[in-house]
Structure formats: structure tokens, C-alpha cells
Amino acid sequence: MTFTHFIFGNLSFSALPENAIAWGGALTVIFGAVIVLALITFFNAWTWLWREWLTSLDPKRIGVMYILVSVVMFVRGLFDVGLMRVQQATSVGDAHGILTATHFQEIFSAHGSIMIFFVAMGFMFGIVNLVLPLQIGARDVAFPFLNSASFWLFCAGAALINLSLIVGDFSTAGWLSYPPLSELAYSPTSGVDYWIWSLQIAGIGSLLSGVNFLATIVKMRAKGMSYMKMPMFAWTVFGAMTLVVFAFPVLTVTLALLSLDRTLGMHFFTAAGGGNMMMYVNLIWAWGHPEVYILILPAFGIFSEVVSTFSGKKLAGYASMVYAIWAIVFLSWLVWLHHFFTMGAGADVNAFFGIMTAVIAIPTGVKIFNWLFTMYRGRIRFTSPMLWFMGFVVLFTLGGVAGVVLSEPVADYQLHNSLFLVAHFHTMIVSGVLFGYFAGVTYWFPKVTGFHLNERWGIRAFWLWLVGFILAFGPLYILGFMGATRRLDHYDPSMGWQGLFIVAAVGAFLIMLGFLCQIIQLVVSIRDRKLNPDTTGDPWYGRTLEWSMRSPAPEYNFAVLPEVTERDEFWVMKQAGTAHAAAPIYEDIAVPRNSGAGILIGAFAVVIGFGIIWHIWWLMIVGLIGVAACIIVRTFDEDTERVISASEVARIETMKTI
Amino acid sequence: MTQYKPEEIAADSKSVFGFFTYLMTDLVLFAALFATYAVLHSGVFGGPTSEEIFNAPFALLETVILLASSFSCGLSLLAARRGNSRGVLASLAITFVLGAVFVVLELSEFARLAASGVGPGVSAFLSSYFTLVGTHGLHIIIGLVWMTALGISIYARGLTRGNMRKLALLSLFWHFLDIIWIFIFTIVYLSGIIL
């Protein structure tokens, strides 16, 4: 090994981007970063940013940061959508569109990985951080520092995936990198390694968050809040975090084994050496199928809160909702094989997994009916969260029915890997998961910031998303039946597909306009924040504990810890006229001190990942020592709490809003 | 015995629950590795089989050493209950030495195999063997680092509330690794020689 190789590993100038579009991506990332850094410096905001945000252990702050990172990653995911849709609408016959085949593959691989790991997961953990402690009457999560470390590991993964735009390339092996394509023999560049390590690092963050929130729910509920008195969102988070805790270790193992194959020449999934590539597919889906329920369950929880609040009624069938959640949690472990019926596991195995997959529609159907029964004879307010719900309930049901079609192994042999499948899972993830999170952000925004999101722009965004979604994915169902496969960068005009692809591109464009409306909504809302403040802390006439304190919720959440006697405690208190007791007696409250160790752990994690990706072993060791040092120093620190005095609490509680 | 405030007890039960949940995630991690090993056990690809390379008495020696370290780890907890910080340090030191000997033995076995051309890159079976056993060894090494840090902390600050809690968690971790090793001994070494 030469000295240069020791210092730089596999890194060389050939790792820089090769064509104009790739350079465009790289320069966007670089300029974006430079502009953000320059703005922070210009406004002299570094100290403020460090003290108030980057080192904060307040779950509400961490939640906001999660959502901001997700929005940034969402922009990148949407750029990928634009490129793919233009390519598929124009690359017909003699025309070859705007992308090379390799670049097209990089883009669909990046789109899937980013949207699941860095948009949906980030959004989900963001909302859970914001809402869960407030809903269960807790002042914090179980392990505030661990929460910060999880967030920065998530950021480290996001940083690595963006770094691949500048240095090296990204995986061309799809969002789940099946071997043997993802093995060194067929993907010799750093692309798959970037995929492995950005997901591995973010995944460990998710795993630790799962442990944290599980402990929060089990150990930190308010006095008197037995499980069956928890708000429905807390229940769905309980289910989702149970899945995180059992599913993510499998992802960790799978990614590690693939990495061992690629880096140390092992033979877990290789074609030669006795490896078994179908084992990879089994392992990754043993994580992957629970993962989709990890994303959708909290969205179900959000809709349960939204529907109940805006219908002015208690949630119909509370107990059946709870049983449905746990039925879904259980069944989600018994369906993974439906992702590869064509593996040839035999008729009996396929039949079992097909039936289990169809069965999972039952608890989901229970939930749909309960939401509709909640609306029935309610006094419904058609706010934008409610609109997102109604868009969801129609599209999600249709997508679910398409899922039942796919659950039949016989039909699946035809529809496998077709655009029908792509249309199906986008219906579940976009109109299910994303619509839910949009509803949640709109619903809880006043609680976090103290002012409302602009409703007019919210409604515009909703309609553009809804119409755009139908136009973008309706044609894909049809194209799937016509035989169009997924991941297609070019086709013959005689197939007669181009018209539908153009419609899909128009739909994608409308979705982007919808997203633009949401950005405008945010800007307008911040500009007009004095015009639409939330002065009461209970802007929607809500039912659960998070509406019982002032908005924005103070750092310690509850000045006086609540005691719960009923489901929908706050609603019951309002009915009984005991909601806002006069002049309570305040006491000193301990909150966690800020810590810079979380962001350092994230930074060292990037160093570890970069070192392994480029085989720069000394750098990897530096990163490992860094992480270990941060953890050890942190555990030696026994002065981790700060006390807010009773008089300070009283001052904050009686302060005027905005 | 010191009397603890209710909020301290609540904090402890939170830590124990959280750490136990983490151990369950680690258990799933090992389960996935065991499953991988079971699938790939026959994937020898012309290379040596488990029967040819495993050394039962050596594995038994490793087992005895690790079990002994679990015993001394338990003694440290008993000493901590009595508030005997020197006893805690002494039994932690014994645990550390036994753990370190275990790691050295394991590494020497890996080195012996690699020297005779039986490395993890030879076949799928060997990849899964080295990864499963190596992951356990890595956990032991992390445990040793933790033990060192905790030992220093106990030496410097005595049996504070925080150190007591960490000692309880460390012993959970150490016993957990013992249980995993029992499975490795049974499934990898014993079954690998008999079957």
C-alpha cells in the first residue's frame, strides 16, 4: 500500500461529477450550504443557533429541526421526481430524454432512499417529538440526550447522502440495493457504499429513538393515564415504536453484511463463494415491511385526533382502534414475502403470505370505518387538516384495494415490478403517510409556534396535491396493466405509453406547485404571525392534554403536572368547567441542560461513514474514537440538569403571547 | 442503605426499562445473525466444513472463562449493595481480566484459522461464522471499555447514585452477552462438531 493510498484511500479526482446535470446537483448543494452559512454569519446568529437549537435537548426544538431537515430533503426528492418524469415522458423511440441510463438509475435509487429514510422518517420522528410528551402529560422524553444523539445521527446520514452528489456517485441498485447487482462485482464504485452508510447511520438513530419513545410511553404517562386512557396518537406511536425496536436491528444486520461483502470480500450474498442472495431479499423485507407500518401508524394516529377534534365528537370505537393497531403490528411481521412471490418459494408458502396480506386489510378497514363513524352526525369543520383527511380516506382506500389485488400471488406474477406496483405504494405512502403528516403539522403548528398556518395557502396546496396526485399516479395504474415495468428509462413509441406518461408528468408538476404553495404558506404565516396568533392555547377546541397549556408550549411543557381521570381528559375538564384552574401553585422544575455532545457524535459519524466508503481507515478510526470519547465524557457529566425556579415559571405562565 | 426519593426511583426504573429494551434490540440483531449462520452453514463452497475447523475443548475453555466473568460481575453488584466500593472495584477488575482473556483467546483462534488459510473470505459459511462470533466479541470489547470508564468513575467518585445505576446496567449487559455466548457455544460449536 502506497502512502497516498493510506492517506486518501480510494479517493481521487475522478470522484468529482462527470456531466452537466451531475455538476448542477453538486453545485446546488455547495451553493446552498454556502448561502446558509453566509446568512447565519451575516445575521450574527451562530451563538443563538448553537445555544437555542443545535445543542438543545428540548424535544419540541428537536422536532422542529427534524421537520426542517425533512423539508430540505423533500426538495431534493422532488427534483429527482421532476427529472424522472421528464425523462419518461420524452425518452421514446429515437429521442433519449435528458438523462443517461446510469444517471436515471442513480436518481430513482436516491429518490426512494431519500423519501423513505430522510423525508418520511424525519417527518414522523419530528411530529412524535413535538406532540408525544405533551399528549401523555410528560415534561420530556425518557432520555433527552439520547434523543439529541438520534437526531444528529439522522442528520449525519442525510449529510452523507448529499455528499455523494459532490464526491463520488450514488447507488444505481434501487432503493433497496438487491444483490448481486449491489455487490462489488457489479457495482464497483462508491455508490452502494454511500447508500449503505447513510442508511446505516440514520437507521441506528431511528433505532435509538424507538427505544427512547417506547420508554417515554411506558414510564412517563401522567398520573392516572392508564393505557386505555391514552390519546389515539400516543397509541399509534406505541405500536410504531414497538415495530422500530424489532425491525431496525434487522436492517442494521442486513446493511452490515452487505458492507462486509463489499469491503472485506466476504460471501453473504455474492453469486460465488456459496452466498445466498435471496437471503438478502428476505432480511431486507423482514425490516422493510414493518417499516411501512412504522410510517403509516402515526399518520393513522394523527387522523384519529384530527377527525375527532374537527367533528366535535369523541373517536368512535376507541377500543377497536387500539386492537386494530396491535393487529397491524402483529400481522406486519407475517407478510414480508409478498414483496417477492416470484422468488419461487412454492405454492403453499405464497398462499400463506398472500392470505396474511389480504387479512391485514381488515384492521385497516376497521380504522377507516371508525373515522367515518366519528364524522357521522358530527359538526364537521372543513379546515385544511380535515381536507387532508378526506383526500386520504378516498385515495388510501383505493390504494388499499390495489394492495389486495397485489396480495394474490397469481395476480402478482403479472403485476410484479410493474408501474401498477409503483402506483400502489405511492398511493399508500403519499396519500397515506404524507397527507397524514401534512395534516399533523397544520394541526399542531399553533401549539409549537404560537400562531396559525395560513389557511388559504393550505387549501390551495391541498387541492394541487390532490389533483396532481390523481393525475400523476392514475396513469401509472393503467400503464402497469399495459405492461410498463418500473425503472424504465426508455421505451418504443409502438407501446402507446407516451400519452399517459405525459399526463403523469403534468400531475407531478402540479404536486410540485402544491409543495411550492406550502413553502409560500410557511413564509406568509411567519410574516403575518401577529395577525393570526393562538392566544388561548386551544385554537381548535381540542380534546387532549396538549391543548391545555399556553401556545407556544413552554420548555417544561406543564407548569403543574396533570392528573388524568378520563379519556379526552382536556375535553372532560372543559365540560366540567375545571380546565383553567385559577392561580395554581408553581414549583421548581428541572429541565435538561443543553449538550453539544449530540452534534459532535453526528459529526464523527459522518467521518466514520466517509472513511469506510473511501477505505480511508485512519479516518474511520478517528471517527470511532471521537464517538467513544463523546459518549464517555457525557456519562462522566453528572451535572446535566438545570432548574427553572417557581417564580420564573409563574412569570412565563402569565406572560402575554406574541 | 440510603433512602431514595420517589423521582430518583422513577428515573432508575426508566433507565432499566430503556436499557432492557435496547438489549432486546440487540437480541434481534443476534437473532438475525444466527439465522444467517443457519442458512449459510452448508455454504462451504469447497472450503472447510464446521467439523474440520472447530476445536471443542478450546470453545469450552472460552465458555468457562466467560461464565466465570459473569460470576465475578455478579459479585460486584453484591458488593455495591453493601456499599463496599473497594469490593466493587476488585470484582470488576477480575471481570475485566477474564473478559480480556476471552477476547485474546477468541482473537488467537481467529488468527490461527486465518493463518491456515481459513479466513472469512473463503466461503459463505466462514463469512457468517466470523461475523456472528466476531460481533459477540465486539460487544465484549465495548463492555470492557465501559467497565474501564465505570471503574475510573467509581474510583474517583465512589458509589454515587449514577454509578450504582450504571453498574446495574453494565451487569445486565454482561449477563446478556453470556447468554448470547451460550447460544453460540451450542449452535455454532457443539452442533457444528456433532451435526
Task: Explain the overall architecture.
The complex is a heterodimer of chains A (658) and B (195). Chain A has 658 residues and is mainly α. Chain A has one domain: Cytochrome c oxidase-like, subunit I domain (Cytochrome C Oxidase, Chain A), CATH 1.20.210. Chain A contains 21 helices and two strands. A two-stranded antiparallel ribbon of chain A has the order 1-2. The radius of gyration of chain A is 25 Å and the shape is globular. Chain A starts with a helix and ends with a helix. The model of chain A has no long low-confidence stretch (mean pLDDT 94). The mean pLDDT of chain B is 93. Chain B has six helices and no strands. Chain B is an all-alpha fold. At the A-B interface, helix 7, helix 8, helix 9 and helix 20 of A face helix 1 and helix 5 of B.
Q: Which structural class do you get from the secondary structure elements of chain B?
A: mainly alpha
Distance N to C terminus of chain A: 63 Å
What percent of the residues of chain A sit in helical stretches (DSSP H or I)?
A: 55-70%
Helix fraction bin of chain B? over 70%
Return the CATH class of chain A: Mainly Alpha
Spans of chain B of at least 5 consecutive residues whose pLDDT stays below 50 are none
**In terms of per-residue confidence, which ranges of chain A show pLDDT below 50 for 5 or more consecutive residues?**
none
Strand element count of chain B = 0
Beta-sheet strand percentage of chain A? under 5%
N-to-C order of helices and strands of chain A? HHHHHHHHHHHHHHHHHHEHHEH
Radius of gyration of chain A: 25 Å
Order of helices and strands of chain B: HHHHHH
- Let me know the largest β-sheet of chain B: none
- Helix tally of chain B equals 6
Radius of gyration based on Cα positions of chain B: 19 Å
Strand composition percent of chain B: under 5%
Mean residue pLDDT of chain B: 93
